[in-house]
Amino acid sequence: MKNNFQIQSPSNIALVKYWGKRSEQIPQNPSVSFTLSKSFTTMDFEIGQTNHLGIKNLTFEFEGKANEKFRIKIIDFLQSVSQDFSFFGHLNLHISSKNSFPHSAGIASSASSMSALALGICQIEEYFSGNKLSETDFQKKASFYARLASGSACRSVFPKVSVWGKTPFLADSSDEYAIAFPEIDPIFEQFHDAILLVSKQEKAVSSRAGHSLMNNNPFAEVRYAQAKNHTEKILIALKTGNLETFIEIVEQEALTLHALMMSSKPSFVLLQPNSLVLIEKIRDFREKTAIPVCFTIDAGPNIHLLYPKNVAEKVEIWIAEELHLFCENGQYLLDKMQ
């Protein structure tokens, strides 16, 4: 490895949602996600060694401009794991980062950026230690540290489908890192994700705050049991190609997430009128055409429209002719699974 190197890491969209955690970023329930191919963070690392500078002297740029808020977030994270990386105290590090997707576009930038950061520090450690891990061990380690930086980031280390959280359905699953789920039916290969941009404004409540509100949510325990059941069912659907079950669970998960937000104390509503219009249009289109489209939603108003590769042309004509009318400035993004 040279003193300068680059990491690229994608975002992901959760199918079974992670909402609620215990200490040390341990999830209350397992989650399952598609890893995206076009929505990614590119992070450049410039490394120098010095006897005078350390973590606090790290410099950071986002899309060509200094970003103090994110610089502090990175410093706090690196300090929290510094006992595992002895070289940090003698490191002169400059990081520059950019995303392939616009800010506040309904795509989890913390997942792509923090997974890129975790992959970067694990690669730096290999350089300083001279100990090169196997690909499997490297991914597991990077996923572990990505989780500590941002929970959902641990899933972005892996392509296609990843699972985070202990589930009896997968012997290797863990609360401390994600794992790849490679046994997917061909119908799910390169599954498409059109992000319908209802609003590009920053959400009013952070995901971190939303997770904490689950501690007193009266429906929390029922939710965690539901998510565990949904995890097993959706993994079976992904393995067998059962689109009907996949659609049912993905949409239930999206609506449950927002129901939990609305039933928390204090409560909050992130869906907007056009979010609800799009949900109804997607369901109506599926019923009338028998084309297997479905929606999911993260903690925001934007709709992720999911559909198989073999119907992409028809669906994308429909988006361009009708659905874009319900997006802010007619904007939407076309992505797909890695």
Structure description:
- The protein is α+β, with helices and mostly antiparallel strands.
- It folds into two domains: 4-180, Ribosomal Protein S5, domain 2 (2-Layer Sandwich), CATH 3.30.230.10; 186-336, Alpha-Beta Plaits.
- Helices cover 37% and strands 22% of the residues.
- The protein contains eight helices and 13 strands.
- It has helices at residues 68-80, 109-129, 135-149, 207-213, 220-240, 243-263, 273-289, 312-321; strands at 4-16, 21-22, 26-27, 31-49, 59-62, 65-66, 91-99, 161-164, 178-180, 192-196, 294-296, 303-307, 332-336.
- The strands form three sheets. Strands 1, 4, 5, 6, 7, 8 and 9 form a seven-stranded mixed beta sheet that branches. It has a four-stranded antiparallel beta sheet with strand order 11-12-10-13.
- Strand 5 (59-62) and strand 6 (65-66) form a beta hairpin.
- Helix 2 (109-129) packs across helix 3 and helix 5 runs antiparallel to helix 6 (243-263).
- The mean pLDDT is 93.
- Main structural class: alpha+beta
If you consult CATH, what is the topology of the largest domain? Answer: Ribosomal Protein S5, domain 2
Distance between the termini: 26 Å
Q: Compute the gyration radius: what is it?
A: 20 Å
Number of domains: 2
Helix content: 25-40%
Low-confidence stretches: none
Q: In DSSP terms, counting alpha (H) and pi (I) runs of 4 or more, how many helices?
A: 8
Mean pLDDT: 93
